[in-house]
Amino acid sequence: MSEQIELVITRTFDAPRELVFEAWTERERLKHWWGPKGFTMQVSKLELRPGGVFHYSIRSPDGHEMWGRFVYLEIVAPEKIVFINSFSDEEGNITRAPFSSTWPLEISNTLTFSEMDGKTKLTLQGGPINATEEERETYEAGLESIRRGFDGTLDQLADYLKRA
């Protein structure tokens, strides 16, 4: 068994912690920034509680639609969110990533929100769980791409927070 591969991203936002937390947990806020730049997002379900599901779709400018879901494990407002992220179908069932037959089915993520002088430091830590060796290797090979994707999404969050 190989050691756990983990992505760690830290970003500071010029916004109070409560607002940044709400941007991650409220339907009307999430739809303004979650997903790749240029994509539109629809929330199918948002049950913010341990065991609850955030089920969503994102649509590319050319009309390609992908579904995803979070299953929340822990929520400590406004400090921490722990969830399992997966690609899904329209009904919310876990599916393979549309871009890889060896992408892990489940990615564990922990978000921590800490406030410093009216700004919020967000730390995202994540990595595959219940994954095969091949799935872990695929994830590790994709880490730079994942990082770029999150950077773009978090840029959109920063822009949203300026307007919120």
From TrEMBL:
Transmembrane segments: none
Database matches in Gene3D superfamilies: 3.30.530.20
CDD domains xrefs: SRPBCC_CalC_Aha1-like
Residues annotated as domain Activator of Hsp90 ATPase homologue 1/2-like C-terminal: 14-162
Family: Belongs to the AHA1 family.
Record's protein name: Uncharacterized conserved protein YndB, AHSA1/START domain
